[in-house]
Please model this.
Amino acid sequence: GHTQRGGTPSAEDRFMASQMGSLAAKALIDGEKEKATVYKDGVVKLAELKDCLVKDDSLFDQFAKLGEMLSI
Model:
């Protein structure tokens, strides 16, 4: 598993990555296809790959306005 948040990985980051890697390996062994490991709602689990590719721009305008305010 891989998450990118910046900085040195904490023990929690390393534990989550271990959980994600273990689940990914098990999924491959079990013949799971088109799945990804995700961290959602506080749990590491498998998700349909197609569900991971959905783009959600619902907060874009809010973040764009904040970016404009902070760049003054």
